[in-house]
Amino acid sequence: MCLGLTVSSTTALAAPKADLWPYWQAHQTNSTQQVDHQRWQLLLDRYLIVAPQQTRFRYSAVTDDDKYTLSRYLRDMAKIDPRQLNRREQFAYWVNLYNAQTVQLILAHYPVSSITKIGGFFSFGPWNEKLLTINGQSLSLNDIEHRILRPIWREPRIHYVVNCASLGCPDLLPRAFTATNTDTLLEQAAKRFINSDKGVKIDGDRVHLSSIYDWYGQDFGTQRELQQHLNRYRTGAPITLQQISYDYDWQLNDAQ
């Protein structure tokens, strides 16, 4: 999940709706083209720190050579027309592109306390900025998540694998997505987040949920359907969603 939230006059946060950009809906079912994500994997191997409850990224440690590696990866991705890929390659392409672009954005503004501090004076974060050009089309991070990934795949676990560089966000995964590991990583990401305190925390009769489940409630269905979704992945006794509160930590997922 990454949010791309907007701030209303009453300071309430509103998540964008899934709104298909038809241009990107095309795909080639029989395509055998494979996208190389090794440069992105190299950055994950070197700078991502995985701990039981949280992964953090060592932004301050990234060398100039590896910043170039990341830029080269993003340039390579921009040369690809994802509409010529099959659906599985497309999914991996868009998720990795989103996460790599987010890391590059943080590196370009580092040190910064939160991704929400990046962007125009009146904006809540950088999600609406046109940061990428793919096949001649200018795209923002919001475009990738809310106009491509969510409306095409209609998969709630997407929120567990696009990362907004914040402690409250589902963790940036240590493996780059590929056409062959996507199902496994989606399952791992859902289980990891839902069994972390930032995803679901029990306090007596009250259940503290990530604000993701509030902002994107439409993607998870009714309260009963959300309860079933959470219990599918939780270890231990099933939970009942009766008294609910929501929380989210926007602090940067930085590791010194």
Automatic annotation (TrEMBL):
DUF547 domain: from which residue to which, for each copy?
83-194
Q: Name one Pfam family in it.
A: DUF547
What InterPro entries does the annotation carry?
A: DUF547
PANTHER family per record: ELECTRON CARRIER/ PROTEIN DISULFIDE OXIDOREDUCTASE, ELECTRON CARRIER_ PROTEIN DISULFIDE OXIDOREDUCTASE
- Protein name (Swiss-Prot/TrEMBL): DUF547 domain-containing protein
